Amino acid sequence: MNQPVRKLPPPDFIQAAVQQTSVVTPLTSTEEERKRTFLRMASHELRTPLNSILGFSEIIESEMFGPLGAPQYKEYAAIIHASGARMLRLVNQILEIARLEAQAVSLNPRAEPLDSALRDVLESLKGEISARKITVTVLEPEYLPSVTADPRGLRTVLTNLIQNAACFSPEGGEVRVSADTVGRGVEIMIEDDGPGIDREELPRLMKPFEQGENVLTRHTEGAGLGLSICDLLCRAMSGRLTLQSQPGRGVTARVKLPSA
Ligand SMILES: Nc1ncnc2c1ncn2[C@@H]1O[C@H](COP(=O)(O)OP(=O)(O)OP(=O)(O)O)[C@@H](O)[C@H]1O
Ligand SMILES: [Mg+2]
């Protein structure tokens, strides 16, 4: 018998859930507690079934316990795995925004050398970058300074910004990463030669679920959450994210963080 198809809640529903958890100061302790309960529940209830979907589809695809009857099953298991991974990324992004807005993220700022953070990030993006034949040039890598930042937070910010730069660049394009000490801080710049963004559009795109028209020409899927996560994370690490762009002239993302 066919099971009824359970539809995913539409983005508006998720957005409303995130907005419900956004900070409205001052919060009573009951509201704080309710927000934290929502985060605990959402984190557990959404991630646990996804882990089963990912784990078991991988086992089926690898035919670990014996061959599958038809080649289509292998292909479908791979599709289930890829869709599950996409959904897990989305769930993690939504939870990250909710946690950051609820100021429920435990950050551990410490002296973090930029070169090792960039090495980790570029390694994790290796597949996407080479698939699009993008060259990422790190300017003067031997002189990269250290910043005071949460190691995971720093890597999340760099990953999202380099991923955007690579994603919206033309195939074979170049992304440049550089860093300079400015006063008592460090400014990290990520520049691309992609289509750029209208100046008036920039504030809107920093908000969750907002995307530009170029999203139709992008080369991976996304929900429009990366920039707002970067913005919230930079603020939580006593820093700032700013974007500069003109249509046709690429985007320059600047991350300012305290120096180490
Ligand atoms: N380097 C860039 N060049 C051109 N457009 C960009 C660039 N970075 C961001 N954008 C525009 O801003 C939008 C929002 O970016 P954001 O990173 O928040 O979301 P996304 O990349 O679409 O999805 P996600 O990051 O959640 O995977 C993008 O959809 C795109 O329209
Ligand atoms: Mg993005």
What's the structural blueprint in terms of helices and strands?
Layout: H1 11-20, H2 29-61, H3 71-101, E1 110-113, H4 114-124, H5 126-131, E2 135-138, E3 146-149, H6 151-167, E4 174-182, E5 185-192, H7 202-205, H8 226-236, E6 240-245, E7 251-258
The chain binds adenosine-5'-triphosphate and magnesium ion.
What features would you highlight for this structure?
binds magnesium ion, two-stranded antiparallel sheet, alpha+beta, five-stranded mixed sheet, binds adenosine-5'-triphosphate, 260 residues, globular, 7 strands, Heat Shock Protein 90
What does this structure look like?
This protein has 260 residues and is of the alpha+beta class. It has two domains: 11-101; 110-258, Heat Shock Protein 90. 47% of the residues lie in helices and 17% in strands. It has eight helices and seven strands; from the N terminus they run H-H-H-E-H-H-E-E-H-E-E-H-H-E-E. It has helices at 11-20, 29-61, 71-101, 114-124, 126-131, 151-167, 202-205, 226-236, and strands spanning 110-113, 135-138, 146-149, 174-182, 185-192, 240-245, 251-258. The strands form two sheets. A five-stranded mixed β-sheet has the order 2-4-5-7-6. Strands 1-3 form a two-stranded antiparallel sheet. A hairpin with a 2-residue loop joins strand 4 and strand 5 (185-192). Helix 2 (29-61) packs antiparallel against helix 3 (71-101), helix 4 (114-124) crosses helix 6 and helix 6 packs antiparallel against helix 8. It is globular and about 65 Å long. The model is unreliable at 1-24 (pLDDT under 50). Bound molecules: adenosine-5'-triphosphate (ATP) and magnesium ion (MG). Adenosine-5'-triphosphate (ATP) binds next to helix 6 and helix 8.
